[in-house]
Amino acid sequence: MNGSSESVTERIRRRLARLYGTPRSGRLCRRLELLAGRYREDLPTLAGEPCWDQRTSVLIAYGDIVRSDGEPPLETLHRFLDERVGEAIRHLHLLPFFPSSSDEGFSVIDFRRVDPALGEWHQVESLARRWPLLVDLVLNHASSQSEWFRHFCAGVAPYRDYFITVDPEQWDLSRVVRPRSSPLLTPATTPWGVRQVWTTFSADQVDLNFANPDVLFELLDILLLYILHGARIIRLDAIAYLWKRSGTPCIHLPETHQVVKLLRDVVDWLAPGTLILTETNVPHAENVSYFGKGDEAHLIYQFSLPPLLLHALLRGDASHLSHWLEHLEAPPPGCSYLNFTASHDGIGVRPLEGLLPEEELEWLVEQIHRRGGLVSHYQAPDGSLRPYELNISWFEAMGDGSTPANGEQIARHLCAQTLMLSLQGVPALWFHLLTATPNDREAVERTGQARSINRHRWDLVHLEELLEHHEATRSVFDGLLQRLRIRAAEPLFSPEVPQRIERIDSRIVALVREREGERLLVLANLSGERLEAALPDPLGGRWRDLLQPECRTEDEAAVPLAPWQVRWLREDTDAGG
Q1: DSSP label at 202?
Q2: Are 372 and 441 a contacting pair, CB within 8 Å?
Q3: Strand pairing class (552-554; 542-545)
Q4: Annotation marks residue 317 as catalytic
Q5: How far apart are CA 173 and CA 245, in angstroms?
Q6: Helix axes 471-488, 460-469, angle to 10 degrees
Q7: Which helix (DSSP H) or strand (DSSP E) does residue 463 occupy?
Q8: Helix, strand or coil for residue 91?
Q9: Inter-residue long-range contacts of 69-73, CB under 8 Å, 24+ positions, other chains counted
Q10: Does pTM top 0.85 for this prediction?
Q11: Among the listed residues 6, 1, 12, the one whose alpha carbon sits nearest the alpha carbon of residue 335
Q12: 21-37 burial by CB neighbour count: b if 16+ within 10 A, else e?
């Protein structure tokens, strides 16, 4: 694997030695063998099967994103997806479905239980049999209301060493990188007096101490449990902040990368075919570091894509987006990007660093405010507050902030998602992209959380009515499912097929997917103008539009594009034969 004759168990021993020292590595390997023995016979193996192809796609949803009276939300979600979505989507990212105290599931109280308000494990497993699951391993922190933290505060072994405590007089915290502006340290009362615990994200989310191997093995056990219940992709939430050392930024530390590689080795060893996805909402060069040398994450998010695409559509100018795509490095063999435009979180803007001028970021922030959105901030190393995240419904962002939803807004929304579906990688769609959901300002007022603006929960009856009678909801839902089905039937959309950018017009993204003499040309007009895409000589020929089968081009010098139109042009080698 990865061009090395070293066995996976030898790699695991080496990684454990790097994390905890050579003298302890032998004992820890024996401990891992015992853990593996508990699961090995029951874990699935997908060895020999391709990790992904053009049919691979992910739908992101909370377990209660659709609700129906008298029915567990997980069953309601299953029924809705079965009746409305079917095979158009291959995987389901079921957002944290565990008991939690805040952050909509990400402050986990009990990692091994399903929240009774959502359902039970058998309902999770039923979903997984139809749509193999992407499941969050929330490994950076646990809830302050968890049993682990209560035992920590009581001084009970082994939990008294499960969390990070810091003496600010002894630790140099001056270089710590934060994704939030809340206090880094939170006081906790213990039998040894008040201790300052590390809280990267909030006082309710207490960071786990991975320098203690007991914590690593606790999370390894949870990882294998999730795979046993149907997880096929494991999302490592907030992984970049995992390891801490005095005097460092406490982000992307070498030990953090060793932990990711170790988790990759464990799934390759015990559940081959299970994939590791890292969630690192940081500048692009830092983000792609989690591929390692093809020995770390199988998948990483394309975090720079959403803000660049949003900027391009609102400006009607694809220059910055095309430049980034043109220089985007191919992932290592056996790895891929996860492409998306929106998720349960906001649209991160730290991934724009070095890609968009400061004045353009300021303009983008202003546009989000105009459309009723919010902006979250983080504390930079110099102590200043900087934009961290744009909080807005993507569909609302596609409007002008003043008029009701109309055809132009629908067209721009579909343009964004269709271009995302065109790119090399695995596409992921947040549920509300399908339903053209507007900003939920009532939820923001109710929760006090900016992210709630894009986390609406649907009453099933109301949603069904919209899907039947509301133009925006029906057009977007049907249009995106149609595109997903067309994409699934086209092998040139496989993540293994490379892409290259053609520069045609600053308002157009033009990319070619090509393999073994077959070509697919994607033309996306990101402006509100009618354009003619002038094709360079190498792209001359006969093309048929997969999205409009009746449309063909025959040696035309220019291809017409309506405002916000995307065309999937397949080279028509049989035309005129």
Answers
A1: B
A2: yes
A3: antiparallel
A4: no
A5: 9
A6: 80
A7: helix 460-469
A8: strand
A9: 72/118, 72/119, 72/120, 72/123, 73/117, 73/118, 73/119
A10: yes
A11: 1
A12: eeeebeebeebbeebbe
Residue type, 315: R
Q: What is the pLDDT averaged over residues 315-344?
A: 97
How far is it, in rounded angstroms, from Cα 379 to Cα 175?
11
Q: How many CB atoms lie within 10 A of CB 350?
A: 22
- In the chain the domains, ranked by start, together with CATH numbers, are 58-142+208-493 (3.20.20.80), 500-571 (2.60.40.1180)
On whether the CB atoms of residues 73 and 117 are closer than 8 A, the answer is yes
Each residue of 350-397: pLDDT tens digit? 999 999 999 999 999 999 999 999 999 887 777 788 899 999 999 999
Whose tokens are 């916000």? That residue is 564
Tell me: the pLDDT tens digits for 82-108? 999 999 999 999 999 999 999 999 999
Burial class (CB in 10 A: 0-12, 13-18, 19+), 4: exposed
Total Cβ atoms within 10 A of residue 38: 12
What rounded mean pLDDT belongs to the chain?
A: 95
Q: Quick check: 297 pLDDT over 90?
A: yes
User: Which carries the bigger pLDDT value, residue 41 or residue 576?
Assistant: 41
Q: What is the DSSP string of 106-128?
A: TSBS-TTS--TTT--HHHHHHHH
Q: Which position among 53, 161, 221, 237 bears the catalytic label? A: 237
